[in-house]
Amino acid sequence: MIRTRRIAILIAGTALIAGAQAASADIRVRIGGSARIHVGGSVQVRAPRAHWVRRHTGVHIGGSIWVGGGYYRPFAQPPPPPPPAVDCNCGQTYYPPIAPAPVTYAVATVQAPAPPPLARFGLGAYLGGVAVDGQHEGKDVGLVGQFRLTRGLIAEAEIAKNELDNGARIDRRLMAGLQFELRPYSRLSPYLAGAIGTSQVEVGQAWQDQQALAEVGAGLRYRLSDRISLFGDFRVGQRQLSDQATAQPIDAATARIVPASDESYTRARLGGMITF
User: Fold this and answer.
1) Containing H/E element for 212?
2) For residue 242, which of 206, 210, 207 has the smallest C-alpha distance?
3) Which of 13, 98, 192, 259 is the most buried if burial means most Cβ atoms within 10 Å?
4) What's the CA gap between 142 and 145, in Å, rounded?
5) Virtual CA dihedral for 186, 192, 197, 202, nearest 10 degrees?
6) How is 225-249 classified by DSSP, letter by letter?
7) What is the CA radius of gyration of the chain?
8) Pair 199, 242: CB distance under 8 Å
């Protein structure tokens, strides 16, 4: 009896389990739906629907939700459309070319300092030697005075005396001339010279005469300071007797040193000068 119950209970449990399995397999519930939101159109809402589908003993729940539509509100003014593209003819333009504005430059002119003024007056003395016709030689001494006419041109006056043959003949000269300095502002300046004058010739106590003379030469001037300078030059000249004085008799010794009608000479000077 007890065994029969156990078998009945087992059969009932098996049937119940089988029915439950058949119910879970035959009855299905499906819930479906969708929602859609579209910006830029209208808003639509579609209510969900439930579908009951009986498949054997199953239930199907289905449906969809769609939300569509849109709302537009301008937040700013839209930019203007770009200009239409045109062909560019870069060789020709409507407007004429614009020249750049002229630029003015200020140029600072730097002037060199003006050189100091040159001394206008000068006084000096010299010692030297003289030779007449290449035979009679002697000593020469003199005083000079100068006046500057222009930057390089100087007028000169000279008083001099020379002795020939150990004092047997004495010549006293008075001359005037010009000098032209080639570099007046330099410490060492070469110059050219020319002069004319007259000379008194004495030979002992027996003979005397006058001579006209002219000479040219060249020299150098060296400035020790603004006021003191040294000079040296060499000159070549020509003498000519202006009067043949033969009032007094002369002997043979005196006639040896009496100048001829024309005679040439050379002389050199070396001296110093103070300028102011």
Assistant:
1) strand 207-223
2) 210
3) 259
4) 10
5) 90
6) SSSEEEEEEEEEEEEEES-----S-
7) 70
8) no
The neighbouring-strand residues paired with 215 are: 195, 237
Asked if 180 and 155 touch (Cβ cutoff 8 Å), the reply is no
Number of residues that this document lists for the chain: 276
What 3-state class would DSSP assign to 191?
A: strand
pLDDT-flagged residues of the chain (< 70): 1-77, 85-97, 99, 105, 243-253
Question: Which tokens belong to 117?
Answer: 């003024």
Residues 149-206: pLDDT tens digits?
999 999 999 999 999 988 889 999 999 999 999 999 999 999 999 999 999 999 888 7
Q: 182-195 burial string, b = 16+ CB within 10 Å, else e?
A: eebeeeebebebbb
Measuring CA to CA, how many Å separate 71 from each of 34, 65, 77, 78?
21, 19, 17, 17
